[in-house]
Amino acid sequence: MVSGMIPLSFGNCTELYSLDLSKNKLIGEIPEEILSLKKLSKLLPLGNSLSGKVPKSVGNCQSLVRLRLGENQLSGPIPRVIGQLPNLVFLDLYTNYFLGVLPHELGNIMVLELLDVHNNQITGEIPPELDELVNLEQLDVSQNGFTGQIPLCFGN
């Protein structure tokens, strides 16, 4: 089991395409250096104690297919730039301290199959733009503070 902070030196691994740090005792923030890796397709630090906000530079990771940040202590709003990740198939943000609204930009990720934001502090309505996600197979928005009705689009 690994503890401490995620080493900044991972940012020097320019050929790195998968980084799985799940179920460790990692603390601190997600380093910007990791989010500069152009080939990174999987970032999986599930089940740690990472804190702070998800850096907006996550939008630079255009190769990301899996972004699994669940079971941490991440906070702040979900960055809208995640909606600019064209290859993102799995987005796990569950059991953190995310707040604010669910960005409507997530409806731009045409290949998204799994969106799990349960057990956060997200409020507002479920964006109707999620209707555009024709490949979406799993959606978990439970244990948040959503208001309003479930968009009619989900009946289709």
UniProtKB/TrEMBL annotation:
Name of the molecule in the record: Leucine-rich repeat-containing protein
Coiled coil segments of this chain: none
Pfam families documented for this protein: LRR_1 (PF00560)
Keyword vocabulary terms for this entry: Cell membrane, Glycoprotein, Leucine-rich repeat, Membrane, Repeat, Signal
InterPro entries: Leu-rich_rpt, LRR_dom_sf
Organism, scientific name: Artemisia annua
Any single Gene Ontology cellular-component annotation: plasma membrane
Gene3D superfamilies for this protein: Ribonuclease Inhibitor
Superkingdom of this protein's organism: Eukaryota
Major subcellular location class: membrane
Keyword Cytoplasm: no
Signal sequence extent: none
Annotated compartments: Cell membrane
